[in-house]
């Protein structure tokens, strides 16, 4: 069996499983198990593939046929220019969330120390992206899932950010440091429960449900966080959320009713409303 044959077989099987970028993904998987760059595979095309590599490829292929996300199979993914471990313990970092990081970074000084918090940190990607880009900042990730908290810790350590961060294991309702934060960021679960069944299998079956399900109208987490933030956050501090494409009005209204100021929304690269920021007023 040659590399070319194996890649073609892989492409056909992934196509059969309804995967759009079948050829590309077949190539990624073969490169991954061969331990080489995509470009190297081209020159190896007519060579025979070692038995062990074939077995490893077929294993990854059947996982992908079962619609396990590529990021879990490869074990890492890139977010905001950083590499994150990615597996079933937490929501996969998504490019859509990069705009949330950008909105937050615009509100954190480069010259002054700052304390930032990430509620429901999951993989730790939002917190890590903030700390990596603001060397004077320290931060805390709050995570109710023990498995996700462990993953966040692993990612922060791998990225050299462990000495400026800590992961609080527990829900944000029991978290005590609201008044310390200069900025709180969160990508909470925001899918309405009834919409979960319509998600792609990669999301529905493999991202943790606790990272997706936002209750009946998808807004449970926003209500909870905004309620606590309105009580506990320091004056002049920022709250920055990721939101669902159709949640701009609802989340703006919640922020407004809770007395937040300077409510601003930003679209992602796909043109959907994706990030919202608001300030706890100084009175
Ligand atoms: N953006 C995710 C999705 O579309 C949902 C993430 C979330 O609920 N925070 O699957």
Automatic annotation (TrEMBL):
CDD domains cross-referenced by the UniProt entry: AdoMet_MTases
Gene3D superfamilies per record: DNA helicase RuvA subunit, C-terminal domain (1.10.8.10), Vaccinia Virus protein VP39 (3.40.50.150)
Entries under PROSITE patterns matching the protein: N6_MTASE
EC number assigned by the record: 2.1.1.297
SUPFAM superfamilies, sorted: S-adenosyl-L-methionine-dependent methyltransferases
Domain Methyltransferase small residues, every copy: 105-195
Keywords: Methyltransferase, S-adenosyl-L-methionine, Transferase
Catalytic activity: L-glutaminyl-[peptide chain release factor] + S-adenosyl-L-methionine = N(5)-methyl-L-glutaminyl-[peptide chain release factor] + S-adenosyl-L-homocysteine + H(+)
Binding site residues for S-adenosyl-L-methionine: 120-124, 143, 172, 187
Segments forming domain Release factor glutamine methyltransferase N-terminal: 5-75
Binding-site positions, substrate: 187-190
Gene Ontology molecular function: any one: nucleic acid binding
GO BP annotations listed: methylation
Top-rank taxon: Bacteria
Keyword Repressor: no
Function: Methylates the class 1 translation termination release factors RF1/PrfA and RF2/PrfB on the glutamine residue of the universally conserved GGQ motif.
Family matches, as NCBIfam families: hemK_fam, RF_mod_PrmC
HAMAP family found in the cross-reference section: RF_methyltr_PrmC
Family listed: Belongs to the protein N5-glutamine methyltransferase family. PrmC subfamily.
Name of this protein: Release factor glutamine methyltransferase
The species this protein was found in: Hyphomonas atlantica
Encoding gene, per UniProt annotation: prmC
């Amino acid at each position: 069996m040659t590399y070319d044959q194996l890649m073609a077989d892989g492409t056909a099987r992934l196509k059969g499983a309804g995967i759009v970028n079948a050829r590309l993904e077949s190539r990624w998987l073969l490169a991954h198990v061969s331990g080489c760059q995509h470009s190297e595979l081209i020159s190896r095309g007519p060579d025979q593939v070692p038995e062990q590599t074939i077995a490893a490829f077929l294993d990854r292929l059947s996982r992908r046929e079962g619609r396990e996300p590529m990021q879990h199979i490869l074990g890492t993914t890139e977010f905001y220019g950083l590499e994150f471990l990615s597996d079933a313990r937490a929501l996969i970092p998504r490019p859509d969330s990069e705009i949330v990081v950008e909105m937050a970074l615009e509100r954190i000084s480069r010259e002054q120390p700052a304390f930032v918090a990430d509620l429901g940190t999951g993989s730790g990607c939002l917190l890590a992206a903030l700390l990596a880009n603001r060397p004077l900042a320290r931060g805390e990730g709050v995570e109710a899932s023990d498995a996700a908290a462990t993953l966040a810790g692993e990612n922060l350590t791998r990225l050299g950010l462990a000495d400026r961060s800590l992961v609080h294991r527990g829900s944000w309702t029991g978290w005590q440091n609201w008044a310390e934060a200069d900025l709180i960021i969160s990508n909470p679960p925001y899918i309405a429960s009834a919409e979960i069944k319509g998600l792609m299998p990669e999301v529905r079956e493999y991202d943790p449900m606790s990272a997706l399900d936002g209750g009946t109208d998808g807004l449970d987490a926003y209500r909870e966080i905004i309620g606590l933030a309105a009580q506990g956050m320091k004056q002049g501090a920022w709250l920055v959320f990721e939101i669902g494409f159709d949640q701009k009005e609802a989340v703006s209204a919640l922020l407004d009713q809770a007395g937040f100021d300077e409510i601003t929304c930003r679209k992602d690269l796909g043109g959907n409303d994706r990030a919202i920021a608001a300030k706890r007023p100084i009175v």
